[in-house]
Amino acid sequence: SQKIEQNSEALNIQEGKTATLTCNYTNYSPAYLQWYRQDPGRGPVFLLLIRENEKEKRKERLKVTFDTTLKQSLFHITASQPADSATYLCALDGQGAGSYQLTFGKGTKLSVIP
Amino acid sequence: DGGITQSPKYLFRKEGQNVTLSCEQNLNHDAMYWYRQDPGQGLRLIYYSQIVNDFQKGDIAEGYSVSREKKESFPLTVTSAQKNPTAFYLCASSTQGSNQPQHFGDGTRLSIL
Fold first, then answer.
1. pLDDT tens digits for range B46-81
2. For residues B64 and B78, what is the distance between their CA atoms, to the nearest angstrom?
3. Which end of chain B is more exposed for a tag (fewer CB within 10 A), N or C?
4. B62 near A CB under 8 A
5. Which of B6, B42, B106 sits opposite A104 (nearest CB)?
6. Does B52 contact A at CB distance below 8 Å?
């Protein structure tokens, strides 16, 4: 069956360092992958989308990579700030290419320590 | 401002009672979704609708029902058949197309009295 794993439930990092979050998947052939941020008691907010034919995508201090051979996406936040503390979710098109549905990972809770 | 509004923020249900969660969007999105989020678990899809008057079951539809009579509205009813309804419920919407970002409301937390 299809499976998504975000390798850490929680990640603590010092302010100013680069945070790297991992999303691995098995039994999938996703056409794209999305990353969301979720604050406590709030809905997720879309951050970035990367397609299977893209190796890397950047937006301000955020960078996402997508390696379809390793079946892995890495999400980087450079020069991290306490305001970056949140849970980060990865999501893939759960039913294969062309699907409206997303399948979400359980998330990684990032804490940036001043 | 455009967005998705979920109400109420907190909802309490008695055993054997049906409750309806509201979701309204003014983003002019065709597609709408309902998810359930439990502690330590990812979002799980309950129902989704790609167009008015049409909807499909997601992975955990049992004990839930929806309607899509208007483009802006996608209410979710948690029926008494749902044996473990306590959870955080999230509504989302997106434009047509398979790789569109989803825009979420701020959720309704349902608890059983």
1. 999 999 999 999 999 999 999 999 999 999 999 988
2. 5
3. N
4. no
5. B42
6. no
